[in-house]
Amino acid sequence: MINKDNFVKINDYLWEIPKSFRKEMKVPARIYASEKILENALCDRSISQLINTTTLPGIVKYSFAMPDIHEGYDFPIGGVAATEYPNGAISPGGIGFDQNCGMRILLSEHTEEDINPYLENLAKEIQKNVPSGLGKGQETKLSIEKIDRILKYGAKEIVEENYGKKEDLDNCESNGTLKEADPGAVSEHAKDRAKDQIGTLGSGNHFIEAQRVDKIFDKEIAKIFGLFKGQVVFMIHTGSRGLGHQIATDYINLMKKSILKYKINLPDRELASVPFSSPEGQRFFSAMSCGANYAWANRQMISYYIRKSARKILGEKIKLKLLYDVAHNIAKIEEHEIENETKKLIVHRKGATRAFPLKHPEIPEKYKNVGQPVLIPGSMGTASYILAGSDKGKESFYSTSHGSGRTMSRGAAIRTFSTKKILEEMTNKGIFVRFSSPRGLVEEAPGAYKNIDNVINIV
Questions:
Q1: What pLDDT does 260 receive?
Q2: Could you give the residue numbers annotated as active site?
Q3: Are 172 and 327 a contacting pair, CB within 8 Å?
Q4: For the chain, which terminal residue's Cβ has fewer other Cβ atoms within 10 angstroms, N or C?
Q5: What is residue 1's predicted lDDT score, i.e. its pLDDT?
Q6: Are 353 and 375 in contact (CB under 8 A)?
Q7: Which helix (H) or strand (E) holds 103?
Q8: pLDDT score recorded for residue 430
Q9: Which tens digits make up the pLDDT trace of 217-271?
Q10: Chain center to CA of 316
Q11: Cis ω on the peptide bond leading into residue 86 (within 30° of 0)?
């Protein structure tokens, strides 16, 4: 049984389980949290899962959890772990079933006053163009040949079909394409699930939200990002849909069978992993890269539909520019400093977003002097935040929270909240909500999540 006494308090927002806690631990486990968030994390399996990740072959430095930590599959959601390249472990569960679930923000040139009279019609038009809900797809099904091109080239393929502009790719993590993608590593079943889901939202906590810029904390960074007070922006949260889920399922099953082959001993079968350099590891990384590319293409296509909807309701002259698009369920090969030496690492981020600092080579040129835009959504009806990457993020492989994080399971939310209560709360706040499933709405009740301001204070 793990309790608060097992942690060493490093400061008011950082706690550590030392390597000596369990003999299998290869590195310490760290969590960024207030006392209250730490106590909440002890109520489910998330801390045990965090400790389990410290046993991964080749893990370096620490295993990390961000302040939005909650129980997941394999890693806790909010988990970050880096292993040695090329022979350290790669774990499908350390990325998640929704590969490259992520965020993007489109910036308008309009204020709330400009758009408010059209908001209801705009919401209806977006919902008409972007199907949402479990398994919901577009009417048109793509061919396998077209799916393969999307898996190979990601958002670039969508932009080349005139569903976006080059600047969309410039303002997207990895320019919307992982070059390691190999469609041949993806099962036909996964591809079949992908045929009608480009440009769709899915279920769970995925959303499209029209937001108002309420507060500016740094005028210089806001100006470079293109933000101004009162501005309306559109936040998109979704990922690789059924395709990513199937890729994860296929390879988790494969790796559970491969553990004995590589003589890997792990405390939980969910943590199934293989050496990155192994044939299975390489094939999974190629397949995961396809899942990531599909997600970037999906968010690019949704951006096209939002722009199309806005032009119809607000007029042809409206412009919606992409501020940034960033993943939060992904494994990347990155260079980080370990004991004063720059090394390549396999960085797993599951429900954690990267936050590169100023001058970093992987961020757009126009953001080089302020740092990467970091997009952290709150729960429905609460604030979201746009931040900038900082050198202080070095200690966590430049990783941070991807949201506020659940405090309550979906089942508990259904037992606690009602559709009527949530809609009344939204109406009282002046928020117009459209949804495909009353159950899905209740599962994502604001009360099922941590207070986003408390999480951001830690971040």
A1: 86
A2: 402
A3: no
A4: N
A5: 79
A6: yes
A7: strand 102-111
A8: 86
A9: 999 999 999 999 999 999 999 999 999 999 999 999 999 999 889 989 888 888 9
A10: 32
A11: yes
The 10s digit of each residue's pLDDT in 420-430 is 999 999 889 88
pLDDT of residue 432: 85
> In whole angstroms, how far apart are CA 284 and each of 85, 90, 94, 133, 167?
15, 9, 12, 28, 30
Q: How far apart are CA 212 and CA 214, in angstroms?
A: 6
Does the pLDDT of residue 434 top 90, yes or no? no
The per-residue pLDDT for 435 is 85
Query: Would you state the structure tokens that stand for residue 144, as one six-digit string?
Result: 């396998």
Q: Locate 414 and state its tokens.
A: 């259904």
**The pLDDT of residue 3 is above 80:** yes
Quote the radius of gyration of the chain (alpha carbons, Å): 21
DSSP calls for 167-219: HHHHTBGGGG--TT--GGGS-HHHHHHHTT-TT--BSTT-EEEEEE----S-H
Strand partners, 373: 388
Query: Rounded to 5 degrees, what are φ and ψ at 259?
Result: -55, -45
Asked if residues 399 and 79 have their Cβ atoms less than 8 Å apart, the reply is no
At residue 113, the 3 state secondary structure works out as helix
Structure tokens at 407: 């405090």
What is d(CA 150, CA 165) in angstroms, rounded to the nearest whole number? Answer: 16
**388 DSSP β-pair partners:** 373
- Look at residue 348 and tell me whether its pLDDT is greater than 90: yes
**111 phi and psi, to 5 degrees?**
-100, 170
pLDDT value at residue 115: 93
The whole-number pLDDT of residue 32 equals: 97
In the structure encoding, which two tokens stand for residue 430, read together? Answer: 């002046």
CB-based contacts of 347: which residues, under 8 Å, 6+ apart? 80, 81, 82, 331, 332, 333, 334, 336, 397, 399
3-state secondary structure of 384: coil
Neighbours of 136 (CB within 10 A): 17
pLDDT at 140: 79
* DSSP calls for 126-170: HHHHS-BSTT---SSPPPHHHHHHHHHHTHHHHHHTTSS-HHHHH
